[in-house]
Structures
1.
Amino acid sequence: MSKDKAINFIAFARCIKIGFIAICAALMAFPFAWMVLSSLKTKAELMSGGWLPSDPQWLNYLEAIRSPLLRNIGNSLAISAASTAYQLVSGAMLAYALAYMSFKGKGLIFALIMGSCMAPSAATYIPSYIILSKMKLLDSYTGLVVSSLVSVFGIFLLRQAFMQVPPSLIEAARLDSASHWRTLWKVVYPVAKPSFAAFVLINAIASYNSYMWPSLVTNSPDLYMVSQGLRHFFIEGGAYGTNWPLVMAGSAIVVLPLLAVFALLQKWFVSGLSGSAGLKG
Amino acid sequence: MSEIELRNVCKEYKKGYPIIHEMSLTLKEGGFSVLLGPSGCGKSTLLRIIAGLDRETGGDVLIGGKSMKNVLPQDREIAMVFQNYALYPSMTARENMEFGLKNMKIPKNEREIRISRISKMLGLEGHMKSKPHQLSGGQCQRVALARAIVKEPKAFLMDEPLSNLDAKLRAQIRRELIELHNKLGTTFVYVTHDQVEAMSMGSEVIVLEGGKARQQASPDEVYANPADLFVAKFIGAPPMNIVDVSALSKFGVAPKAEFIGFRPEKAMIMDFSATCPDGCVFLAGSVAARENLGDHSLISINTKAGMIIAKRFGERAFSEEKAMVAVKREDLKWFDEEGKSIRT
Ligand SMILES: Nc1ncnc2c1ncn2[C@@H]1O[C@H](COP(=O)(O)OP(=O)(O)O)[C@@H](O)[C@H]1O
Ligand SMILES: [Mg+2]
């Protein structure tokens, strides 16, 4: 009797849990669905409300593709890829040193790196801008990549993952005459792969989404990244003439690469953030 | 030349709290030296100092007569087997063995030869393509050994390599290690807290306690003539019986002796009323417990000198309530007030 009750209770708790998760998922998915639906409406239809487009306007997508948006996406992808690659290598090397090497001033260096997180990013814009301009890298791809070669969050994430690796593995590699570089990529990297995946995802998304800094240091429309490109749609028709369906179609296209990356990495991503170093894999 | 010599080696992690006290030891070339001691006595630290993974705070380590002061771990020509195996999880058994050889820039054909020979020697041929998580504990241990052996080092350093295995496998690998040592003839330095491992495998045993070497001798010698009370009580199952000298003073004692020890198997149990044989000392008491362990039994006897444990082999069960413990005089070990052995 009481056993039945217990089972009933567990089933009930399960229903509540699943229901809660379903509601959360729906809340998260709603803006995306709304975006896609709106992108298929006419301007008038969108303003008057209603759920489904009566006559899907696929031409909105064609128009969005014809605009410089694809070029903007290409820019963003290239710059995200380049800066994430640099961040990955520099982050892994720094995290390796912080996790496995002992040297004077290690604590201080770690504190400085972490402390730089505390500075609001707006405070770094002006000095960074001046540095870039002195390097004559304003308004260039190189400038955009150079200004994000290192990711503090990434260093922290990888350091935490590296600390989970049994120290005897590093010592074994050392006794096996492996250089630090080989130890990092042949021994540590395969074990900490989930954290590397989380690293790539988080930094690539941040870089793909970045708006403020790229619009400060670039001027030529050829160099625009996606968020700048999207903004162009807004201002194209003047303050009251924004072509919302077109903005929605553009946004939907812009989101696609991110969804693809996430689908590819999500298995690793979740275990990377939950801190298990994935020693089993 | 692969004798390992420690000269006044000290180690402290925190100033004023030495983990290893001025230790001087010579571990013979080609020997199977076992560092034996309770947990926390500094065995691993000592092994890591020999490997160069930890730096000594004082003294010097010599391998083959050469000071290792400025020699990096990878250049000491030693191989280490870790307690948790420390196999590279992403590599197959074969890649685990090959990793070090590649780093040492050993040519491919030489690598092939070594790996196939050693994997055959350790019965690993069928598992070369498996990753560590697909292998059992015993197989992982063999891969770890193989990884060490293919490097053809001057000495093997092993830190409790059997402690993660079950009892049966442990006994088996123990035998394999003895065989391996005979085959390779290389210096083995083996750390354990298990006296059975030490006694069964070691060509010499170094008993450590509190960062000091208490005794360095062959297993037989350590068992028969412990250098002090700590060694006497640490080795043997059950350990040596220790009684205060006053309990046996009527039989005449060695000068300066404060404690007397005798092994449980040297204690003869007789009926309370029996007359004791000549040349024996004896203590009377009542039987407190009997443990039958198959080929032998342990009998605990409560005497006025404290609890005495006697070991009896294959004799009829001792059923009396009162008993007499007799020990031949030559089987008594004498210890002074500091617990040091007195040779008579
Ligand atoms: N990295 C370290 N920092 C501080 N103390 C340590 C460190 N490593 C070991 N110790 C201390 O040194 C002592 C000996 O340790 P260890 O050599 O591992 O003992 P064993 O291997 O004999 O069990 C222990 O008391 C331990 O707490
Ligand atoms: Mg230890």
2.
Amino acid sequence: MNSPGLFFVHYLMIINERPTAYPIFANIKTVAMEDLKLEELFQAKVDAELKIEPKDWMPEKYRKTLIRQISQHAHSEVVGMLPEGNWITRAPSLRRKAILLAKVQDEAGHGLYLYSACETLGATREKTVEDLNSGKAKYSSIFNYPTLTWADIGAVGWLVDGAAIMNQVMLCRTSYGPYARAMVRICKEESFHQRQGYEIMSVLAKGTPEQKEMAQDSLNRWWWPSLMMFGPSDANSTNSADSMKWKIKRQSNDELRQTFIDRTVQQAEILGLTIPDAKLKWNEDTKHYEWGDIDWAEFNNVVAGNGPCNKERLVARNKAHDEGAWVREAAMAYAGKQAKRKAA
Amino acid sequence: MTIQEALFTYCLRRGDDNLILSHRLGEWCGHGPQLEEDIALTNRALDLIGQARNYLQYAGQVEGKGRSEDDLAYLRNERQYTNVKLVEQPNGDYAHTMVRSFLFDAWHLPLQQALTRSKDDQLAAIASKAVKEIAYHLKTSGDWMIRFGDGTAESHQRAQRALDDLWTFSGELFATDDVEAVLFAAGIAPDMAAVKSAFDSTVQSVLTEATLKRPMDAYMATGGRQGKHSEHLGFMLAEMQYLQRAYPGAIW
Ligand SMILES: [Fe+2]
């Protein structure tokens, strides 16, 4: 809070909101801009917990980092529809089918908000989607794992959405305004999904022996990939320092992972399921769980494109996009004709 | 045939049409031509499954043998399903999917509007809730017909082909039998001739604006209402019912 820029930040905030209404402040703005380096001012704003908005000056690297992160996030929502959509036609009751449909629909909505947030940074949706389809852009590796049984729909909600929420709650306070606002909406829906997933697991865990086995098997397969969702450990994380300074991120990968583990281990106990980690144990001094070694070789392998479903996911996205081309063209052509008719 | 028996079958038919079409639309999830359409298709699928559940719950009540919506959805076989053949037809391209929905919606709306005036209070209540949803379905499927028909040469051709392919399934929507006759006489089910004329005028006006040609009324495929389906339905049910069949009696 001792940055020299802070004093001006409050004026700038007013000016930014009502640029024409404060001619005197507009002068101050000019002076301030001259006196302060733009980057210092930007950092002062971030430090003062003011949101950065699309029209504000921002370092190019901040913009790039955000575009990368938000687009990856958007792609994850969209690709995530595939493993979950995989069970819509096989959901075991009409109620479950309706809940799953609604959930996958929410994910599509999240994708849309996030592509819009990306557009505020100058990345067109067309180009962003193209980067996904060409394999250039990444998405959360977790969605390269298959949903093999109905219990996986429970596990995805409980663990994958549960892990995602840790990140997303933090991102509700991220420094970039449109991203933070998109996250507030998304978080509400995501925590609902997490409860629904937990409920699926809970019904299975209390069900027949076969159902309980299905739930345990699913936890066994999803546990470690879920922990990997938080990314490399802090010591090996390349993007973290700037992201923390710019308050894009506000907690480290390992802090978030710890919170997730502490919470989820207790939930597994309530379910009567066993976390597949022999080294897992409560540490009375730190008041946290200690856990075993994450197989980072597996993580890197999936990120590199060799996960169980990487190819299928990209094929499915490309197929949808290519086969939808004539539909999008028809809509554009018709809109064009209508506009012409109106003008005539 | 008693009114109760007829009403049970009538509810199953409404439930099955909605459930099977919802299932087909659900197959699109994650594969739509753009995200907005994924959302719109899921919306439609959700509305239809909601309506299906209302009808199947009511069918179970009317039958009085303690069967739940899930018993009826998951434990009947192909020959016991009573949906029209139109809704079980594969998705095909987006034109086939939208034409299938348009034909269904253009029939569904006047049917449900008439059912809001049914002497059976529960049917009237279900219909009153459904008509708002269906009006929106018809608006959006009609809009796509127009966009396709009056869009590009390719979209026009695809829409016309889909219409020509699916038209043969439109006649069954209006087929009447004893079930309809018994309920019509009791003021429970509407006059299908009136529903047909509303359908005709919707189709006429949308196709005209879409610059598409209404196919000739030639042979009309029937049999769905009597459980004589196309080969597609068996596969759909095998998929839909797999967990319930594999783990009898389990709660999900
Ligand atoms: Fe989401």
